[in-house]
Amino acid sequence: MHISLDGFVAGPNGEMDWIKIEEEIFDHVGKRISQTNTAMYGRKTFEMMENYWPTAADQPNASKHDIEHSKWYGKVHKIVLSRSMKESGLTNTTVISDNLTDRLENIKQQAGNEILLFGSPTATDALIQLDLIDGYWLFVNPIILGRGISLFANIKVKTKLSLLSTHPFRCGVAELNYMVDRQ
């Protein structure tokens, strides 16, 4: 998830025009997600993804990233956290609207590897409140927004983390990969 230095994932009106996106980051992310077979989204993020990725590779000016991510998106199992969306008609997609803890624990047992949550501040907040996040993969952008949608606004319990890796990018973004320390 992209985040500002002061902890915001979007501006006050949901704007994300401050996020630095470039080929070096796309290549780095592509290597990691290619090893993942399950992606999770909140409803809003899923709808944005569904409107773009299924046909992104077919566009005349499709970038290398568009082609690779579109291919991955087409084969990855998608989980959508939503109280309003229905599963009917969705390919390779599971919608979870209730019993979040039980349903996710069941999927984790079957997934075979990590489940990556993409964007989705509301879904992330729900998962944090239920202590269902095992790690944070953050892309800290070199900007201070001052206000906006905070990733950690509703934290009620201190959570200790262990740093797994860091990766600086030429554009000034720093990847921080943390595991939740459950000891």
Give structural notes.
With 183 residues, this protein is α/β, with parallel strands linked by helices. The protein has a single domain (2-180), classed as Dihydrofolate Reductase, subunit A (3-Layer(aba) Sandwich). Helix content is 32%, strand content 26%. The chain has 5 helices and 10 strands. The chain has helices spanning 23-33, 43-56, 64-75, 100-111, 121-129; strands at residues 2-4, 8-10, 38-42, 77-81, 93-96, 115-117, 135-141, 149-150, 161-168, 174-180. Helix 1 runs parallel beside helix 3 (64-75) and helix 2 crosses helix 3 (64-75). The longest helix is centred in the N-terminal third of the chain and has 14 residues, at 43-56. It starts with a strand and ends with a strand.
Secondary structure layout:
Blueprint: E1 2-4, E2 8-10, H1 23-33, E3 38-42, H2 43-56, H3 64-75, E4 77-81, E5 93-96, H4 100-111, E6 115-117, H5 121-129, E7 135-141, E8 149-150, E9 161-168, E10 174-180
Parallel strand pairs: 1-7, 3-4, 3-6, 4-5
Antiparallel strand pairs: 2-8, 7-10, 9-10
Helix pairs in contact: 1-3, 2-3
User: How many helices in DSSP terms?
Assistant: 5
Largest pleated sheet: 4 strands, mixed
- Rg to the nearest angstrom? 16 Å
Low-confidence stretches: none
The backbone outline, from C-alpha atoms, is globular
Query: Could you give the order of strands across the largest sheet?
Result: 1-7-10-9
Element string (H = helix, E = strand):
EEHEHHEEHEHEEEE
Mean pLDDT reading: 91
The CA-CA distance between the termini, in Å, is 25 Å
The CATH superfamily is known as Dihydrofolate Reductase, subunit A
CATH topology: Dihydrofolate Reductase, subunit A
Sheet/helix structural class = alpha/beta
Top CATH class = Alpha Beta
> From the coordinates shown, what is the CATH architecture?
3-Layer(aba) Sandwich
